[in-house]
Design goal:
It is a single chain. By secondary structure, the protein is mainly alpha-helical. It folds into two domains: about 1-165, Orthogonal Bundle (Cytochrome Bc1 Complex, Chain D, domain 2); about 170-305, Cytochrome c-like domain (Cytochrome Bc1 Complex, Chain D, domain 2, Orthogonal Bundle), CATH 1.10.760. It has helices spanning about 1-20, 30-45, 55-60, 105-115, 125-130, 135-145, 150-165, 170-180, 185-195, 230, 265-270, 285-300, 305, and strands spanning about 215, 240. The longest helix is centred in the N-terminal third of the chain and has 21 residues, at about 1-20. The two termini are about 40 Å apart.
């Protein structure tokens, strides 16, 4: 069933992949701002959905590190998406995208939700026709690419905008630049050493992105078969891509299905010894050690999100 649901959007978007790549020739810097501006315009445009009520920004909200606060986001006609909304901060540095790495190019990934029936339920070519009558979008397209907007340029513009969402301004980043642990509280320092030591967290959550972009079965109960939907390799059942740990304070709830309201809840399940026969090592952490790791994780919050 999952394979069948994904087939149509993946075929449409894959057809555009070669066209999008053809848009990636060298561009002068004066056009870059126009590309980003056009991408932002498209990202926030609710005409991307069949009911005219859902945009990319509906589920990827800037003040929540371009995620949202729901277990599962709402798509067209009140339908729920299949998974929790991932943060888009620093997504331009990733090599593949979504929990199951369904896309290997950011422009392709940006187009998939447009065609999914429970998300935006629209068609990129129908949206292209809408933009041919939009003077603002056409003006930006000529500034960015020196030609009218096309379906391929829509994907490329979204990629340009998403790639501009770069944030490395956390307390941790300041520590790295200064190599000064005095920036941390005692509990944060303790958590730092546990994260990179006894806790083995960094084996999967590697800096600077705090993800190794690999897929693991961590033992969480789920109806979602994860990576297996694309590889059809039985070993990949229930495996999901390692999420980034940046900006966790504003991206609750957690897990690919948003089942965990707090980081404490998530960590408790994550360390449950019953889950360890899967891809996770057996790690025993005392309550105070778990608390210290949670304090360290807060140092990965970017300063621009702290006010929220």
């Amino acid at each position: 069933m999952i394979k069948k649901q994904l087939k149509r959007p993946l075929i449409i978007c894959s057809t555009l992949f070669l066209l999008i790549n053809s848009c990636n020739s060298k561009k002068d810097l004066s056009s870059k701002d126009a590309q980003i501006s056009l991408g932002k315009f498209i990202f926030e445009d609710k005409r991307l959905s069949s009911d005219g009520k859902i945009s990319c920004a509906s589920c990827h909200i800037d003040k929540f590190a371009f995620a949202d606060t729901l277990p599962l986001s709402k798509g067209v006609d009140g339908q729920f998406t299949n998974r929790n909304s991932l943060s888009l901060v620093n997504v331009g540095f990733y090599s593949h995208f979504m929990y199951d790495s369904a896309a290997s190019d950011l422009a392709l990934q940006a187009l998939i939700p447009i065609h999914k029936s429970n998300e935006m339920n629209f068609n990129i070519y129908a949206y292209e026709k809408l933009l041919t009558l939009d003077d603002f979008a056409q003006d930006l397209s000529h500034k960015a690419y020196k030609k009218p907007i096309t379906a391929a340029l829509i994907g490329q513009s979204l990629k340009s905008y998403l790639s501009s969402l770069v944030h490395f301004h956390s307390k941790y980043d300041l520590f790295v630049s200064r190599n000064d642990t005095s920036l941390f509280s005692k509990s944060e320092q303790f958590g730092y050493f546990l994260f990179f030591g006894k806790g083995q967290c960094a084996s999967c959550h590697r800096p600077p992105l705090f993800t190794d972009q690999k897929h693991y079965n961590t033992g969480f109960d789920t109806f979602d078969i994860g990576l297996y939907a694309h590889t059809l390799d039985a070993r990949d059942k229930f495996r999901f891509r390692t999420p980034s740990l940046r900006n966790l304070s504003v991206t609750a709830p957690y897990g690919h299905n948003g089942a965990y309201p707090s980081l404490k809840d998530f960590l408790t399940v994550h360390l449950n010894i019953q889950n360890h026969p899967h891809d996770m090592p057996s790690i025993n952490l005392l309550i105070q050690e778990q608390s210290a790791i949670l304090d360290f994780l807060k140092t990965l919050d970017d300063s621009c999100y702290m006010q929220h």
